[in-house]
Amino acid sequence: MDGIRVIANNKKVRHEYFIEDTFECGIVLTGTEIKSIRQGKVSLKESYCGVTAGEIFVYQMNISSYEQGNIYNVDPVRTRKLLMHKKQISKLAGQVQKQGYSIIPLRLYMKAGKAKIEIALAKGKKLHDKRHTIATRDADRRMKRAMRDH
Fold first, then answer.
1. How many C-beta neighbours within 10 Å does residue 33 have?
2. Cβ atoms of 36 and 49 closer than 8 Å
3. 80 pairs with which residues across the strands?
4. Which residue among 22, 40, 118, 141 has its CA within the 20 to 30 Å range from the CA of 107?
5. Which long-range contacts (CB under 8 A, 24 or more apart) does 46-51 make?
6. What backbone torsions phi and psi does residue 6 show, to the nearest 5 degrees?
């Protein structure tokens, strides 16, 4: 992927959820937040998204304070607005309410100088699903190793 520099990944999501659909969104930030993102001081671990009054927000995304930001720094885990088309937002809101899906951030990246966030419409896995995923991954790894050795 040319022109894309991944800043933060949410690695646990693929283990905890079935990913149904992904979307690319812009994110509303302050000047010191974007400088901190460029330095890679972002964590998506506990973050999630929600739809409120026809707008979509990301909660608990931690963007550490910028060292030279002094009075312009804001709360590191403040709620941030995401930029999407209204049709996409209403589609996501309907699925979250009806089928019990969640909206989870997958990764944060820079694209053409702008910060973008990739969010996913995801359904939670049960314990047996997680075990099945681990078993499948291990079996694939063993097959590849056997093919490589022979």
1. 25
2. no
3. 58
4. 141
5. 47/10, 47/104, 47/105, 48/102, 48/103, 48/104, 48/105, 49/82, 49/103, 49/104, 49/105, 49/119, 50/103, 51/89, 51/92, 51/93, 51/96, 51/103
6. -75, 130
Is-above-0.85 flag for pTM? no
Provide the CATH number for the domain formed by 4-125 in this structure. 2.40.280.10
Residue 118, pLDDT > 90, answer yes
**Max Cα separation, the chain?**
62
pLDDT of 83 higher than 90? yes
pLDDT exceeding 90 applies to what percent of the chain?
A: 27
User: Are residues 130 and 15 in contact, defined by beta-carbon separation less than 8 angstroms?
Assistant: yes
Residue 86's alpha-carbon distances to 29, 32, 62, 66, 92, in angstroms, are 20, 28, 26, 32, 10
- Residue 77 per-residue DSSP state: T
Residue 76 has which token pair? 């590191």
Q: 140-146 — which CB contacts under 8 Å span 24+ positions? A: none
Q: Evaluate if residue 2 carries a pLDDT over 70.
A: no
